[in-house]
Amino acid sequence: MTKQTHRHADCLDPILGRYGHDASNLLQILRELQECVGYLPAVSITCLAEKLAIPRARIESVASFYSFLHLQAHGEYRVLFSDNITDRMLGSVELMQSMCRQLWVEPGKVSEDGLVSINTTSCTGMCDQGPALLVNGRAITRLTHQRVQEIAQLIRNRTPLADWPADFFRVEDNIRRSGLVLDNRLVPGEVLRAALSMSVRGSTGSPRTEIGTAVVEAIKQSGLRGRGGAGFPTGLKWEACRNAQGANHYVVCNADEGEPGTFKDRVLLTRQADLVFEGMTLCALAIGAKQGFVYLRGEYRYLLEPLQAVLQQRRDSNLLGRNILGQSGFDFDIAIHLGAGAYICGEESALIESLEGKRGVPRNRPPFPVTHGYMQQPTAVDNVETFCQAALAIHMGAENYKAIGTAKSSGSKLISVSGDCPRPGIYEYPFGVSVREILQDCGAVNTRAVQISGPSGVCVAEHEFDRRLGFEDLPTAGAFMVFDDSRDMFEVARNYVHFFAHESCGFCTPCRVGTSMLKQTMDKIAAGLGTQYDLSEVENLDHVLQTTSHCGLGRTACNPVLHTLKYFRPAYESRLKSLEFKPAFDLDGALARARQMTGRDDAGAHLKTEAT
Amino acid sequence: MIPPAKPKLRIATTSLAGCFGCHMSFLDIDERLFPLLDLVEFDRSPLTDIKHCGPCDIGLIEGGVCNAENVHVLREFRKNCKTLIAIGACAINGGLPAQRNHLDLGSCLTEVYLTEPGLAHGHIPNDPELPLPLDKVHPLHEVVKIDYFIPGCPPSGDAIWKFLTDLIAGKTPELGHGLIKYD
């Protein structure tokens, strides 16, 4: 404890200094403090509460919300295996068991010597190079039995993470097909220069207002729609935000890429960071913002320093900062905030709560972030890819951009392909590409089903492979998980249901309880105790969740089951015990303790499992 | 020709691991018991003292499942009742008796019968006449299929009246505002 007290005292003041002793940066402060101390000891929280003049309860409520923040010591090495279905298909369950055996530790517990803890976490966005894990927040990819053995050895020897082989941490981009976005070779600032030379005929405003209006008009003309999944027209969003009254306007880039099976934002932030920032700056120009944020998911912590270096280069080239490119009054800068393992923060209003240093609980909408966003000010929240597409739309001109894709879905889309195919990775297509074309390109054979846009999206079976990606038919945030005919679609759905139960933020009862009930029902069916009754209960649950959940998480939580029930009902039925109702637990077993305590073993001391 | 009188519906009721509070609340329908008796007759119920239920239209059960006897009674009801209704918090969630669920049954029995002073004369009752307690208290729907739930601790007489009259009239029972309270 003394050692920790010293450590936290040494760390805390510089961190608080960097974040201006501002409680709205609480999540960032806690995250950095934990990087320094290893976890968040009670003494640090007391000290922090005093220094920020906020109640301890508020700090604990935030710290306990995020799965990457810890109020108890969790070992010098914290290993988290990515638990997406694609990791499981590549053998992650066995690898985790093996590591637990080698380090003498049970999953979810800290080893007795306090050295290591091993557990699972939601998809870490490395589906094309899994199985993957995080060790003290750093991503390790392409796990094999040999690599697991090496990791166990390094942990036993207490080798500092910095001295582990660099190859462990290598993250491939795996770009298999490039297009508009991935092929661009724009010079940083090129799009902004083009934008600054735009003007609207007949406009009487100041030059900057005039340019902003021109940018919004061009984005509207381009037909660009958000790439985070919902597909809201970007031009309308920017226009509404621009017209909203407020002391400050904000640009927020949603890089909390948590939807299992999605990893295209990771590649964009690795390969096209300048384009992302260029798009954000363009948005700032359009809506009149002076401050922007990138909300980067905690799993991509390793991208923080490279991204900050790109931001610094842009400041040095006058592409960020004051009077950008000599345009008087065009001031804008970008800060990066890291998430801490909460899928729900991908929902824009939860993301804003998290940016403000609170628990990531979605807000009531309306009002929408465009009028009441960050600090209740007008805020444009867009996906990483949307900002890239916006920059390109301005660069090539609205008409040229609109010519790509389909009538209602202009431009290109990055698809994150994973699962049963020889060439997983990133594929960029114009909108309108069919599922079949993508399957052919990635070399998938004997495909049984594709999960489009992650667990909250749709499951597409073989007879639908001619359906096309686009807002007309199959909208997608980018995930494309392929399952061949060796896969059990029931287990796929069960994995997704566990994911939703784990990621429910707990704020509203229908979702908090409903996702757990759904999980229990799927586990009951998996244990061979399910009946037709349980299948119809899933439909009832879906109705409750659809109609009463606070946000989209609860509303979509039943989708994986409903979709797989529709197409793969025999995968469920083959597991059912009978058509009659069966209890989820062993009734006779439930009497065992009482038999033991009373020494009875007569007929009345037993219950038949089958109702008679 | 006079049409034959519409046969009365048969109702059975019982209390498992409950306090009979829901039955007391049922009696709170007061004088409406008379019009109810024009429509229904009672099978097994504390009101009739019939020990086993025969074929019925409606079964009403209060209380959760805490021992082997509860399981037998619940199965008897499920087997005989076309529509089975869980009434009250204990039947739906386990309620107050389920507070023992986070304790080990063995240590409960030890504390009650062995270590604390009392009437047990230092041994845990083991007469075969006594039903054995389950290690945990379960809501009804974890043991058999339940068709309807009437929430409340207890549900008010008005709620029970509305629910039964809806059901008897062939309507899907709907407890609107005022009949379900969460305070």
* Sequence stretches where pLDDT stays below 50 over 5 or more residues of chain B: none
CATH superfamily of the largest domain in chain A: NADH-ubiquinone oxidoreductase 51kDa subunit
Q: Main beta sheet of chain B, described? A: 5 strands, parallel
What is the rounded distance between the termini of chain B? 54 Å
Q: What would you note in describing this structure?
A:
The complex is a heterodimer of chains A (about 600) and B (about 180). Chain A is α/β, with parallel strands linked by helices and about 600 residues long. Chain A is about 40% helix and about 10% strand. Chain A folds into four domains: about 5-60; about 75-170, Glutaredoxin, CATH 3.40.30.10; about 175-400, Rossmann fold; about 410-485, Ubiquitin-like (UB roll) (Roll), CATH 3.10.20.600. In chain A, the strands form three sheets. A six-stranded mixed sheet of chain A has the order 5-11-10-14-12-13, sandwiched between helices. A four-stranded mixed sheet of chain A has the order 2-1-3-4, with helices on one face. In chain A, strands 8-7-6-9 form a four-stranded parallel sheet, with helices on both faces. In chain A, helix 13 links the parallel strand 7 and strand 8 (about 335-340). Chain A is globular, with a radius of gyration of 26 Å. The N and C termini of chain A lie far apart (about 60 Å). In chain A, about 50% of the residues are buried. Chain B has helices at about 20-25, 35-40, 70-80, 90-95, 105-115, 155-170, and strands at about 10-15, 40, 55-60, 65, 80-85, 135-140, 150. With about 180 residues, chain B is an alpha/beta fold.
